[in-house]
UniProtKB/TrEMBL annotation:
Protein name in the entry: ABC-type branched-subunit amino acid transport system ATPase component
Protein's UniProt keywords contain Nucleotide-binding: yes
Entry-linked Gene3D superfamilies: P-loop containing nucleotide triphosphate hydrolases
Domain ABC transporter: 5-252
Biological process according to GO: D-alanine transmembrane transport; L-alanine transport; L-isoleucine import across plasma membrane; L-valine import across plasma membrane
Gene Ontology molecular function, alphabetical: ATP binding; ATP hydrolysis activity; L-isoleucine transmembrane transporter activity; L-phenylalanine transmembrane transporter activity; L-valine transmembrane transporter activity
Lineage: Bacteria, Bacillati, Actinomycetota, Actinomycetes, Micrococcales
Pfam family, one: ABC_tran
Listed transmembrane segments: none
Length: 257
């Protein structure tokens, strides 16, 4: 299996706290892998490193053999890494369609100058982008909301828009940071359906999530972090039964289970 994302010996310290301690794992091309662990185990730190929002102290991250540098989110996006955040970051006063198209403009480098200088060509590109954005919204099942202001959408639909926007960048690696947080069961099931539907042979997905039902329905492999260390890896069914995982979660608060 071709490895898309390779994390090797990743270490991140915050003063005296080792948030990630020589963490190594891979996500093969076309696979969806989940990252779980109790609160404070290092999941957000890891996703911030992979998306190059943060820097790290030791180890390396490569995507399709290309090295990802720390504190370079624009460079990471250029290398095909796209992410969502725990807290929604949509442009509330723009329409749903515009929110998705913004990502396309950005990734294709169309600015105002291009719009003026390349008017006919730009219009054709703009039309194509609109069609592609609508296709993504259709995939997410929210095409009927395309012209609605993003800020007026119910929370669950806003999550779907965020994923459609992340996909609009045409990524090779999609990072989803607690996408099911705050969703009810129906919305979570719909989100799982979307994540399953976007799977492509040239797209790898890494999802950080607490909801094990969601994890079991989208991910073939799960990595479990505790105190910055990997304590288990395997299928969702395997890690659920793993003694180290049970110990980590039983030792944590009820909220983490
Ligand atoms: N900017 C920071 N400064 C200092 N310590 C930090 C910082 N970010 C994270 N940490 C520490 O690193 C450790 C891992 O935190 P991280 O947020 O990655 O865990 P997590 O698994 O994502 O937790 P949660 O499930 O609560 O989001 C924790 O001990 C946390 O306090």
């Amino acid at each position: 299996m071709t490895q898309a994302l390779v994390i090797d010996g990743l270490t991140r310290r915050f003063g005296g706290v080792t948030a990630l301690n020589a963490v190594s794992f891979t996500v093969p091309l076309g696979q969806t892998r989940a990252l779980i662990g109790p609160n404070g185990s290092g999941k957000s730190t890891l996703i911030n490193c992979v998306s190059a929002v943060d820097r790290w102290d030791d180890g390396s991250i490569t995507l399709a053999d290309r090295v990802i540098k720390g504190k370079d989110p624009v460079g990471a996006a250029r290398r095909g890494i796209s992410r969502t955040f725990q807290t929604l970051r949509l442009f509330d006063d723009m329409t749903v369609l515009e929110n998705v198209m913004v990502a396309m403009h950005h990734s294709r480098g169309y600015g105002l100058l291009a719009a003026i200088a390349l008017a006919p060509k730009y219009r054709a590109a703009e039309k194509r982008m609109r069609e592609q954005a609508l296709e993504l919204l259709t995939l997410a099942g929210i095409e009927s909301e395309a012209n609605r202001e993003a800020g007026t959408l119910p929370y669950g639909h806003r999550r779907l828009v965020e994923i459609a926007r992340a996909l609009a960048l045409g990524p090779n690696l999609l990072l989803l940071d607690e996408p099911a947080a705050g969703l009810n069961d129906t919305e979570t099931a719909r989100l799982a359906e979307l994540v399953t539907r976007v799977a492509r042979p040239d797209l790898s997905i890494l999802v950080v999530e607490h909801n094990m039902e969601f994890v079991s329905s989208v991910a073939s492999q799960v990595t479990v972090l505790d105190n910055g260390n990997i304590i288990a890896e395997g299928t969702p069914a395997e890690v659920r039964e793993h003694p180290e995982v049970l110990r980590a979660y039983l030792g944590a608060s009820e909220d983490d289970k």
